[in-house]
Amino acid sequence: MNSAPPVFTTIVVALVLVVVCGRWWLVNETLTDRLINRALSWDIGAVFGYLFVAGAGYPDLGQRVFVAVGLLALSNSFGFVMSLGAPDLRQSWRRQRRYDTVALSVGLVVLVCAVGNELALFRGVLPAVDWDGLLWVGTDAWLIVIAVLLGRACLRELRVVGMTAREKSTYCALLAVAACSACGSVVRTLTTLSGASPQHMGAGWAVVSFTALAILALLISMPLIDALLVRAGLDRAGRCCRQLRPLWHDLTTAVPEVVLPLAPAEQRGSSARLYRMTVEIRDALLHLKQFVPDPGGGEVTDLGTYARGIAEAARLKLHGVPPSYPRQAVRLPAGDRTTELGNLLALAREWAAARTAFAD
């Protein structure tokens, strides 16, 4: 770790730190989200632990602090890959507590031995046992298991029919990261078993490790980017809401009784808001049909004419004109929500010209 270029290390750590903070803020709802966030947090904690201890003049102790804290990152990573496809999330949480307990116990033992080694408290024991080698071999074995489980999950998901190009590319990238992690752990294990120190494998190894961490951070930042787009209203549902808002505002002003009550625990995302708007617009249109003028018009097939008729109907209702028998309609096929949304968006585009009658 200490052989990596400082500027490169700083950039990667800053990237991961931003992703971690953003995910804790916006992407922390499901079990897998929380496990990913916890794993990244402990990983960053391990890096900062190393930097603090090594900066104090104890680089070897810093390496062991990094491994000890990193064990908790591994326990959460292991819990994440074990939870993929798990039917009972409560069982997953119970298992995770056991994983964390084991990682914490081993980490405390590592810290005690590391501090004892620095203070020369166990001169008769530690020199006789290559405990650094055992620690790294055990850690790499755990990493290999995690990488294999993650790779298997990625292959399983890639076999699913109907997957989008983005999902395929994400799983392929995760599969590549898992394969690189497994190969790197095997190489480091063989290096350790050959008698070389795994703590000093050169600048190239450190750069590759931090590059893999950066790629992983970018991959798991994709839900964060989606959440930021939703929060800013820049996702597809948010854009549709903005296009429908003038139509929705005018219709619900004319027919306020169609507005659905908002429960305190109801989802507030743009998708839920779009669904509510489409339902309320549809109900308002059905209600305003009985106010549509021109009794001899019959069925209207032109969307612009229909929009002007609805705008006039809204004006009449606001002025207290009693309803007449519904005579006009427009053929808007809505066999599914996608078709209905497309029809309402088309009506919203016509509404900009038709609302002048409503404004009078």
UniProtKB/TrEMBL annotation:
The keyword Membrane applies. InterPro entries: DUF6545, MAB_1171c-like. Coiled coil: none annotated. The keyword Lipid metabolism does not apply. Keywords: Membrane, Transmembrane, Transmembrane helix. The chain crosses the membrane at residues 6-27, 39-59, 65-89, 101-122, 134-151, 171-191, 203-229. It comes from the Bacteria. Residues 236-352 form the DUF6545 domain. This is DUF6545 domain-containing protein. It comes from Nocardia brasiliensis.
